[in-house]
Write a structure and sequence with these properties.
The complex is a heterodimer of chains A (about 110) and B (about 110). Chain A has about 110 residues and is mainly β. Chain A is built from no helices and 12 strands. In chain A, a hairpin with a 5-residue loop joins strand 5 and strand 6. Chain A is globular. Chain A starts with a strand and ends with a strand. By secondary structure, chain B is an all-beta fold. In chain B, about 0% of the residues lie in helices and about 50% in strands. Chain B contains no helices and 11 strands. In chain B, the strands form 2 sheets. In chain B, strands 2, 4, 5, 6, 9, 10 and 11 form a 7-stranded mixed sheet that branches. A 4-stranded antiparallel sheet of chain B has the order 1-3-8-7, with no helix packed on it. In chain B, a hairpin with a 6-residue loop joins strand 7 and strand 8. The termini of chain B are far apart. The chains are: A mainly beta (about 110), B mainly beta (about 110). The interface between A and B is medium-sized, with 24 and 27 residues.
Chain lengths: ~110, ~110
């Protein structure tokens, strides 16, 4: 079955450290890929998206992600974590023919230590 | 335009009662999606509309759930005879057909069934 996998449920980094959140998809045809952020009791905010243009995608708040077809991955990175980055992060995909229906991973909670 | 609006933000109900949630999408968006998010999980697709037509329903949407989008504007999601397992965040999103960039989520309705 087509799916998206986010390894681990919790990542903790120090303020100023590199943030790396992993996402892998399972599909023989590259899907459209998205990262969303969710703050407590809030909806989802789009961080960035890959829609078959450039493989390195830059998003809001200093985040970026690189699409690697050979690894079926779309990992999210940020060079220097800020306290305000503490939130839950979801990787999501739209598979071809899925009527623009998003399929989400389970999410990763990012904690930032002072 | 103020984005996607969901009401109420929070709803506490007794088991067995019926509840109804409302979603007002971005006015020019013709697609509207409902998702359910339980604690520690990513959002799961429930159903979607294109204009007033309900085009797809997930197997998660039992007979107790019904959704409508009269006149292709706002949408309602009703849950009859609520169960404790229905406790979740219900998210609404809207987009334009064929437009992968305009998938906008509301802040959600958090349902607690006691």
């Amino acid at each position: 079955a087509q799916s998206v996998t986010q390894l681990g449920s919790h990542v903790s980094v120090s303020e100023g450290a590199l943030v790396l959140l992993r996402c892998n998809y399972s599909s023989s045809v590259p899907p459209y890929l998205f990262w969303y952020v969710q703050y407590p009791n809030q909806g989802l905010q789009l961080l960035l998206k890959y829609t078959s243009a450039a493989t390195l995608v830059k998003g809001i708040n200093g985040f970026e992600a690189e699409f690697k077809k050979s690894e079926t991955s779309f990992h999210l990175t940020k060079p220097s974590a800020h306290m305000s980055d503490a939130a839950e992060y979801f990787c999501a995909v739209i598979y071809p023919g899925a009527n623009s229906k998003l399929t989400f991973g389970k999410g990763i909670t990012l904690s930032v230590r002072p | 335009d103020t984005g996607v609006s969901q009401n109420p933000r929070h709803k506490i109900t007794k088991r067995g009662q019926n509840v109804t949630f409302r979603c007002d999408p971005i006015s020019e968006h013709n697609r509207l999606y409902w998702y359910r998010q339980t604690l520690g999980q990513g959002p799961e697709f429930l159903t979607y509309f294109q204009n007033e037509a309900q085009l797809e329903k997930s197997r998660l949407l039992s007979d107790r759930f019904s959704a409508e989008r009269p006149k292709g504007s706002f949408s309602t999601l009703e849950i009859q005879r609520t169960e404790q397992g229905d406790s979740a965040m219900y998210l609404c999103a809207s987009s334009l057909v064929g437009e992968l960039y305009g998938y906008t989520f509301g802040s959600g309705t958090r349902l607690t069934v006691v």
